[in-house]
Amino acid sequence: MTYTHASSKSEKDLISYQSVRGAETKAIYETIREGTSLSSIEKKFVKPTETSNSKSVKDTIQFLHATDFLERPSERTVEPLDGQPFGDLPFELQLFHHLSQQEAPQDHFIEVAEVIANQDQITYDKDDLLEDLKRELGSYPFDWNIEKVQMWYNMMAPMGLVSVRDNQELLTSPSPAVVYDLLDAYRSRENDHRLRSAFDWVEKNFFSCYASRGGIPRVHRGLSDTLGTLVSDGVLDLEAPSDATYEVKVSSANADKVSSFTLHERPQRPAYRYPLDAHEIEVKA
After folding, report:
1. What is the share, in percent, of the chain residues with pLDDT greater than 90?
2. Which CATH architecture has domain 91-174?
3. How far is CA 64 from CA 14, 39, 48, 224, 245, in A?
4. Which of 24, 76, 81, 94 sits at 20 to 30 Å (Cα–Cα) from 246?
5. Distance separating alpha carbons of residues 130 and 148, to the nearest angstrom
């Protein structure tokens, strides 16, 4: 299935949609059907006493259009851009895929995840991330600032790629739901249990997994931490047969190198639900 870019998209930098939040993005998208009017969306999401929220709703619709979830057949209507790859997966994973498919300079949004993976930290201070983005992604046609970092937090934390503590510190471990569903999607689509191949697939279609890629790649510490959680919960087995040739390094694994995985039944505990399903996440600027 081929990825399709929406027509007549805004060229506004994705990171500049500072009124857009992950929770509202998902909620608004899930209400849209063919020929949905903008006025009906505003009626649903903007209370009469909160007219200032109208801009946030309009910006969210524009963001969904810019990331190829929607088409705008007219100025007053929107409709889903159906037939995209991975449309059967949860919205959170679809968003990662859509962001990974953006062409330069709009690829900057998902490139933040690569900077985080390359730094290989479990925790990341907001101010330190800003300095690293200025250094590593400084070639984009805008200036990185703390508001842009905050916008990234506000979108990606509710999606489960990262989490935030005290509105300042980034925890780089994806939610168990994200990792479980991606491994399950790879296993079912490719009929394969090689862990390195699975993470290669995730890197190609969703977000960065590796802190280093030379020789035998090493999974970044945040992702490794989540894998360790799945293992300790009895949900995931990581295996290292002596004759394995296509391996990956996982710091939380008992073996130095891992080649294959076995995924067991998904638990019903809140930890294995997406953040927006398990509890409300709010990151204030």
Report:
1. 85
2. Orthogonal Bundle (1.10)
3. 10, 16, 24, 31, 42
4. 94
5. 9
